[in-house]
Structures are given as structure tokens and as C-alpha cells.
Specification:
The protein is mainly alpha-helical and 373 residues long. It is built from 14 helices and nine strands. A hairpin with a 4-residue loop joins strand 3 and strand 4. The chain is globular and about 55 Å long.
């Protein structure tokens, strides 16, 4: 449980009220969509373009967050519709890859944990089985993406997908899911996380031996750089592995990455898209800060009392900075946070998971204790 002073509590309550005011409208106007960004202020719909797009679970997850916090049935209805839309992705199968945790942990997984819905449970376990099937038994890692040439690829993002496996191990009473998750986490800890707490986005391993062959800059500035969202995936992903396993080394890794992240943003708490890129142009990534804030809150819960405030304060500063610089609370724009960055060399626009993680961080600070991951 996070302890807030009166000023912090007042701000968190205000943010929650603003979220509810805006999302209680968009949950109806965007029902039946799988939003990724907005076009002329209106949410787009990924289901026609790519039903297997990796972000397609965040809208449903956002709706469940708001339902848990408000008990407004409209949120629940939209979450359930979103989950049903994703059945087309399961049927398609060939478009699915390492990101099935993002898609079904937040939708079917949350639904099952809240309601006991067996259809949701089946979807969740199907997704977990798909993710487990991507495990390279010789290399000790979960393969990223599909297609020729990616046989040995693993990415830092997968640390946020493996909680699907930790939960599946408990639900199915089958520790094989956990063994896979832990093996991947240990491989990532050893080869993705650098001594200073920065991380590689993409690693290529020899698929026959598991030996590290090469690293790639991926969505960051370049090889050896520090893609801020990758830092956030690692920060939150490792503390989640700690929560699910109790292994101290995962918490220690999350803290190392957190210290690097905090040092990189401490001037204004607005994360640049890459922490090791040229000063110009300035490219922000609101998504990185919101993911990191959620992870920092969980670290604050996990460490002793007098250490906790360091991580909590950093989370609060990230949230305040993003809200002041990027939030749009008007009805002209269905999204909330602007300046999401797909990649350092890509475009900058509102992205659905910036809104999701902002809401999740406020949800946590409100004291709601159901962990969505």
C-alpha cells in the first residue's frame, strides 16, 4: 500500500475523477473498436487493419481498470466486447507472436480473475500456451516475432508478457509455464541488462546454443543506445517477475534499471525517446514515463519503508510532468496523453498504452490492489 500525503492524495483523486469523466464517454463512443491512436481526435480501429496488432489488449485493460475502480457497468460492457473482438486474432493464429501477454492478460485474464468466466479462462490459457510454445529449449529464451531470420531474436518487451506464464502456472497447476518464464527472465537479466542499468532492445542468440551473437538498437537511436521504453519494459517487467516468484535478484535488477531511468529523466521527468541520442531533435515518449511510473510504484511497495519514498517520489514526478505537458482533458481528443513515440526514428502521436499506464498508475495510487499483470 502506498502512503500519500494530503497534497498527493488530492492530486491523485483529481486525476481519477478526470479519467472517469473522460473515459465514461469514450468507453461508449469507442465501443466495438480496438484503438491504437486517434485520427482528427477520434480513436482509430486496428481490427480491420491488423487484428493481431500487439496493442489490441490495452483498450480492454483500460476499461477493466476503470470498472474495478468505479463499478460503472459501461466500462465492463466495453471490456467484454473488446475481448470478444480478439477471438478473430486467436482464430487467425499466424499473426500472433511474443506479445500475446499484452493482448490477453489484460482482457481475458482480468475478466477471469474478476468474474470466473470460463470462456475468458480458455482464451487466457490458449494465449499462455502460444507464448510457451515460442520458448527455445536449447537457447533458453522466448523467441520474438515470426518469419525467417528471427529464429534467435529476443526483445526486452517480452518481460511484460511473461506474467501471463506465471499466472498460467498457478491456474493450470503446471509449473512448466513458470519454468519457461523464469528461464527467459534469467537470460534477459544476464544479456539484456547492462552493468549500468541500461538495456539492449533486441538480442540475437544462436538458436542452437543460446550464445549471444549480436545486439540491435531496435526502436532506439542505434546499437548501444538506450531506448527509454525498453528501459521501462525492463523496470516494470523485472519487478513483476519478483512479485510472481519472490526472487530477490529480479527486484535487484528492477532497482538497477530504475536508478538508471531516474538519473536519465531527473532534469524535467519527461523521458526522451532514447536516453543516448543527440540533443536535437528533442523526441519525447510519454509511454515510457507511464510504464516506468507503474513499475516504480511496485518497487516502492516491495522495499523497506525508508527506501520506498525514493521510488514513489520518482513515480509521482513522472506522472505530474506527463499530465502537465501532454494531457488533453477536453472532448476534442478521445485520447488523453500526447507525444507517444513508436520508435526514435518513427512518428510521435497519442498511443493507447500511454493512457492505459497513466490510468494504471493512478489506480495503484488510489489504493486499488488488484494487480492486472
Amino acid at each position: 500500500m502506498i502512503a500519500l500525503n494530503e497534497t498527493e492524495k488530492k492530486w491523485v483523486d483529481e486525476m481519477w475523477e478526470r479519467l472517469d469523466k473522460k473515459l465514461s464517454k469514450t468507453c461508449i463512443s469507442a465501443r466495438g473498436k480496438l484503438p491504437y491512436t486517434t485520427v482528427n481526435g477520434v480513436f482509430d480501429d486496428k481490427q480491420g487493419e491488423d487484428i493481431s496488432w500487439w496493442t489490441n489488449g490495452f483498450w480492454g485493460g483500460l476499461m477493466w481498470l476503470m470498472y474495478v475502480g468505479t463499478k460503472n457497468e459501461e466500462y465492463r460492457k466495453t471490456a467484454e466486447v473488446t475481448e470478444e473482438l480478439l477471438d478473430k486474432a486467436l482464430e487467425n493464429f499466424f499473426g500472433l507472436h511474443h506479445d500475446v501477454g499484452f493482448m490477453w492478460n489484460l482482457t481475458a485474464g482480468v475478466n477471469f480473475r474478476l468474474t470466473g468466466n470460463e470462456r475468458s479462462h480458455a482464451r487466457f490459457m490458449t494465449a499462455a500456451s502460444i507464448l510457451a510454445s515460442r520458448y527455445n529449449t536449447k537457447g533458453g529464451f522466448i523467441r520474438a516475432w515470426n518469419g525467417d531470420g528471427h529464429e534467435g531474436w529476443a526483445i526486452i518487451d517480452c518481460m511484460m508478457n511473461i506474467p501471463l506464464l506465471y499466472r498460467a502456472a498457478v491456474d493450470a497447476k503446471d509449473d512448466r509455464f513458470r519454468y519457461i518464464a523464469e528461464s527467459h527472465a534469467e537470460k534477459t537479466q544476464k544479456f539484456h541488462v547492462r552493468p549500468d542499468g541500461s538495456v539492449n532492445h533486441i538480442n540475437e542468440y544462436d538458436p542452437e546454443t543460446g550464445e549471444l551473437v549480436k545486439t540491435f538498437g531496435g526502436q532506439g537511436y542505434g546499437e548501444g543506445s538506450s531506448w527509454s521504453r525498453g528501459q521501462a519494459w525492463a523496470l516494470y517487467g523485472f519487478v513483476l517477475s519478483f512479485i510472481h516468484t519472490g526472487k530477490q535478484e529480479y527486484l535487484d535488477t528492477a532497482k538497477r534499471v530504475a536508478h538508471y531511468f531516474i538519473a536519465a529523466v531527473c532534469d524535467d521527468y519527461l523521458p526522451k525517446s532514447d536516453f543516448r541520442s543527440p540533443e536535437e531533435p528533442v523526441i519525447y515518449d510519454s509511454t515510457a514515463g507511464m510504464i516506468a511510473a507503474c513499475g516504480l510504484i511496485e518497487i516502492a511497495k516491495a522495499v523497506p519503508e525508508f527506501e520506498s519514498r525514493l521510488y514513489q517520489n520518482a513515480a509521482m514526478k513522472l506522472l505530474h510532468a506527463a499530465e502537465e505537458a501532454f494531457a488533453d482533458w477536453t472532448n476534442k481528443e478521445e485520447s488523453i496523453l500526447r507525444c507517444g513515440s513508436e520508435s526514435y526514428h518513427g512518428n510521435n502521436f497519442p498511443i493507447i498504452y500511454a493512457d492505459y499506464y497513466f490510468a494504471e498508475a493512478i489506480y495503484k495510487l488510489k489504493g486499488f490492489d488488484m494487480l492486472f499483470w
